[in-house]
Amino acid sequence: MKTFIVAGLVFGMLVLFHEFGHFSVAKLVGIKVHEFAIGMGPKILSYKGAETRYSVRIFPIGGYVKMEGEDEQSSDVRSFNNKPLLARLSVILAGPLMNFVLAVILFSIIFYSVGFPTTTIGETTKDLPAYKSGLQTGDKILAIDDKKVGTWDEIVKNIKESNKDNIKISYERNDKKEHVYITPVINKEDNRRIIGITPRFEKSIVKSIKYSFDRIIFIIDEMFKFFGRLFAGKASSSDVVGPVGIIHIVGEAAKTNIYNVLSLAALISINLGMVNLLPIPALDGGRIIFLLFEGISGKPIDPEKEGMIHFTGFILLMGLMLFMVYKDLLRFVL
């Protein structure tokens, strides 16, 4: 039960931020919004405002902002399709953008609460390679194999991806630059190459926000690399999870501490923002493609025809989601 409650809160927060992005900008540019819904399926709660109905629905796996004239012809001056191109583009982009804003907020909370890792060594693990090489607490890592590093994530990544037996670690101690060669060992828990160092943590509001942006850029870069491996046939579809898998992972995070849950929520939010920008009908990226086509051609596509294309895309996405649910059930439940 705890797993479902936490997962529901996480999904609800992600959907709320995403849809609020669409909703707030739509209101800002004067588009008539009929409904602002969090969740899908039958209504649990509903409130009718002066113009917009606000509702919470039973399945917290999505949501929507129903705007006048978005997928149909409308002569209303406040309809979506009667607004300038830039206004419509802003409304569509606002949803994914809010997912990245949420990730910044969550990472900033984590980094300021527990501190953020720096490139300075906080501790070396006894009997592991870094300790044996003479690296000490307070040494600042400057480069791995002559590749400059500015974050702890880059240190971990470069050690993990290095294919050399001896890795050159450049560091600074007492204002003197030194280097040492270290042979990594394999961490049995995650099969990752390590040398046995942990970072020193710092607390700063400004640096926490900056590091949040660095973390988001790092995650997006890893996502692009994963998509590249996936299309090249070098990654397995088993590395991708659906709703059930995400619920399972959230449940595991909930068994540890709130910061792991927040970190996972930030990661999912970034994924949600990136996936929504893919040029697929029914997703925000698909709608952006239609708007860009209109900007280039100078002629909008018939809203009803575009709506049908998006509806077809929605059906295909629902089919994909059901397939992912089936795979998740086999993997995590059955």
From TrEMBL:
Task: List the InterPro entries hit by this protein, alphabetically.
Answer: PDZ, PDZ_6, PDZ_sf, Pept_M50_Zn, Peptidase_M50
What are the subcellular locations of this protein?
Membrane
Organism domain of life: Bacteria
List its EC numbers: 3.4.24.-
- Membrane-crossing residue ranges in chain numbering: 85-112, 258-278, 307-326
Q: Which GO terms describe its cellular component?
A: membrane
Q: Does the keyword Protease apply?
A: yes
Q: How does it sit in the membrane?
A: Multi-pass membrane protein
Q: Which residues form the PDZ domain?
A: 103-175
Q: Name one GO biological process term.
A: proteolysis
Entry's SMART domains? Answer: PDZ
- List the Pfam families hit by this protein, alphabetically: PDZ_6, Peptidase_M50
Keyword Disulfide bond appears in the UniProt entry: no
Residue ranges of coiled coil: none
Q: Do you know which CDD domains this protein is assigned to? A: cpPDZ_EcRseP-like (cd23081), S2P-M50_PDZ_RseP-like (cd06163)
The cofactors named for this UniProt entry are:
Zn(2+)
Q: Which UniProt keywords apply?
A: Hydrolase, Membrane, Metal-binding, Metalloprotease, Protease, Transmembrane, Transmembrane helix, Zinc
Q: What class of enzyme is it?
A: hydrolase
Q: Cite the GO molecular-function annotations of the record.
A: metal ion binding; metalloendopeptidase activity
Q: Which family does it belong to?
A: Belongs to the peptidase M50B family.
Q: What is this protein called?
A: Zinc metalloprotease
Top-down, what is the taxonomic lineage of the species of origin? Bacteria, Bacillati, Bacillota, Clostridia, Peptostreptococcales
Q: Which gene encodes it?
A: rseP
